[in-house]
Amino acid sequence: MGFFDGYNIAVSGMSAQRTRINVVSANIANAKTTHTQDGGPYKKQNVVFEDVLLQESQKTNNNTNELNKNSDISLRGVGVKSIVENDAKPVMRYEPSHPDANEDGYVAYPDINPVVEMVDLIEAMRSYEANVATFNTHKNIDNKTLDILKA
User: How many CB atoms lie within 10 A of CB 40?
Assistant: First the structure.
């Protein structure tokens, strides 16, 4: 494991969680959107994560020893595989005076529960904070190591 590998893993987690926070925030903001450019109600989006293998060329230090050359263990991070739209049917509410009401007076609203979205947002924020704490812990360990080496 290289000197900066721990930083790279924490940063990949922060980046993935930032994307998740942005998507969940968009879901909350559009929970009442009944008309989009596609013509229907807003569709909830979800982030799909994937584990990422960092290749030797992506590592920040070029120190390779026999243990690393023969090891099958790869450095992993996390990335965003895709952002997918939820295929849930819209919630129909009777509002005949609404401009987007159909001929029967029903309006199609996105199937988004703000409470569930807030819980998802809090979870993403906690995961982001955990990655920040990991980054800072790694930095503190490196600083202590350098202090020991200077003495």
Answer: 14
Q: Strands 76-85 and 45-53, how do they pair? A: antiparallel
Q: How many Cβ atoms are within 10 Å of 36's Cβ, its own excluded?
A: 12
**What's the pLDDT tens digit per position in 122-142?**
999 999 999 999 999 999 999
Phi, psi of 16 (to 5 degrees): -65, -45
Q: Give the start-to-end residue ranges of the domains of the chain.
A: 5-150
- Classify residue 39 by burial, with Cβ atoms within 10 Å: 0-12, 13-18, 19+: exposed
> Distance between CA 68 and CA 1 in Å, rounded?
8
Q: Which amino acid is at 143?
A: N
**C-alpha span between 2 and 68 (Å, rounded):** 10
Which residue from 125, 142, 128 is spatially nearest to 5, judged by alpha carbons?
A: 142
Structure pTM?
A: 0.81
Kindly report, residue by residue over 55-85, the tens digit of the pLDDT. 554 555 555 444 455 455 566 889 999 999 9
Residue 110 — φ and ψ, nearest 5°?
-65, 150
Beta bridge partners of 45: 85
